Amino acid sequence: MPPEVNVDLVRAALARRQAGDLDGAVKLLGRAATSDRSLLPAVGALQFELGNGRLGAGDLDGAADAFQQAARLMEGDAGSVFNLGVVEQRRSRIAEAEAAYREALRRDPLLAPGWNCLLLVEKAAGRISDASAAGRRAIAIDPSYYEAVVNLGEWLALLGRIDEGRRLLRRGRAIMREAWAALSGLGLAEANAGRIEAALSALRRSLAFNPAGQHAWNNLATAEPGLGGVLLALKRALALTPLDAAAHSNLIFALSYVPEVAPADRLREAQRWAHRHLPPAPAPNFRNTPDPARRLRVGYLSSDLRRHPIAYNVEDLVRAHDRQSIEVAAYSATPTADDVTQRIAGSVDLWRNVAGMAAQGIADAIRSDGVDVLVILAGHAGANPLSVAGFRPAPVQVSFHDVSTSGAAAVDAWLTDSVLHPPGTPELFVEKLVSLPCFYLHRPPDEAPPVVPRGEGPIVFGSFNNPLKLGPAVLETWARVLDATPGSRLLLKYKNRFSSRLLQAGVQQVLGDRVDFLTDDVGRAEQLVLLNRVDIALDPFPFNGSTTSFEALWMGVPMVTLAGDRFVGRVGASLLAQLGLDDLVASDIAAYVARASALAADKVRLARLRSELRDRVRASRLCDSERYARSIEDAYRALWSEWCSRR
What we know:
By secondary structure, this protein is of the alpha/beta class. It has helices at 7-18, 22-33, 40-56, 60-73, 79-90, 94-107, 112-124, 128-141, 146-158, 162-175, 180-192, 196-209, 214-223, 227-240, 245-255, 263-277, 309-320, 339-347, 359-368, 472-483, 501-511, 524-530, 547-554, 571-577, 589-601, 603-619, 625-645; strands at 296-302, 326-332, 350-353, 373-377, 396-400, 413-417, 432-436, 460-463, 489-493, 515-518, 536-538, 559-562, 585-586. It has a seven-stranded parallel sheet with strand order 3-2-1-4-5-6-7, covered by helices on one side. Strands 10-9-8-11-12-13 form a six-stranded parallel sheet, with helices on both faces.
């Protein structure tokens, strides 16, 4: 005979539920279920309801507990496990969220929201094919599932499958009338395709539907052809989400393009970032043995360990480290891994994929691994997790390849050289400057074609830099260079960005019809071939080229640069100093024009440089990975010894 139901407890539980006291209802019905286990699913349903209430109130820990109880009591229910995954994702417990989503899908393989959330988790972890497959499962189950259509469309566009991504995002517009999220994603896809006018149209329509759309403002910053529009969009995005560290870093990076920003203002914005986004510095409690002579574990943290300029600068360094002295760890927050990612992963002693992890989780992994020196690559650029520094996971923390000061007191040193930061530099920073004999190391591009001698014809100046670097002062200076070199032309390329009529019109307003635009988005090998059409590279200012400059020099194209007053404005001077070409470095605009026109007139020197530059670059410190690695190791060792002396 089954036990009798305690009717009074059940009635009391229902009364509590009707009164809104879910905690009390759960307790009473749970007591009733001790004598009648058939009530357990009903207790689970109340726990599910309780979890939703706690989730709505922002009590993530309480919600997680309630959903766990619900999932245990309702063995076949997928909704409680799915909601647990949502809570875990909000708590930045990505592995736990993924496990919950997978369990929910085991219970109900047709749960489209489960596949959609799995897409987001797989995407954050950099599992490209798995993320795409999860998104396709979601929309196969429910073709009108707006969120899944938008998420998959944005993901495919990010992977470079622009046309497929655009088709999905346009489908999202058809599903929902005020499809601001689809329009925002479509705008970014169009911008990445170089269709600036279409991108601006989509993003402005998105913001008309939802003026508070922070992602749309961020995407608008990517699409805007002018620096003023970029800064306005980023400031609006940051105003909407003041605690978004990545959006704030984007603003700091954009300020590097602006000539008028004073050193004190740049420092102040970086310190504001640190104050707003970094946790209070924890009390040092390191287990690292303070022995200045022992083998060091050096960790490199980056989201750019892929086909990216940062990877081109560090790949040969990590490979050349002296393994008797240095153990190399890499913490890759790279969401779209490729062949370069695989090469770097194969050349380090310890590889950790931290893509999608919260800053504290990354810091915990670094601390657990016993890293002695943490090198944070390009902290305020791209999606690099500079916030990790605030958790102080390593005794020594170093900034490398960032555009300016990190602003974070937890970052001990900033690697530089004597050209980038000469004595008396007006640039301000919170870190200790550590000067290397040579700051840059570039991996020679394997896909580089032979240098082709230039034939007869007008001089062709060129720049393959981001058009945001081509402000009014730059274009006006280049107009003077063309004026001083009769018959000369200027060749501009940056991905497919110059296919925009807006951009072309802005350039032609200053340079007239003396400029040619290359509009195709080509691979690196094809880009290097195009440099054979250029006689002299013109470096923009105040934000110089870096990898673009190295590639020009490798292809036998000499460069004229203007040395500015900050790190990013002295990159060209640093590169040319290593090649003995200091005479191509100008200290003011008049000298820039004079040096460019004089080099254009010296056809003998141009021909000689074209034939010998690649060999000169190859023989310089710029490509000497062994020598470069020793200098970096000396810097790390000195910083480590300083830390040991304070123990």
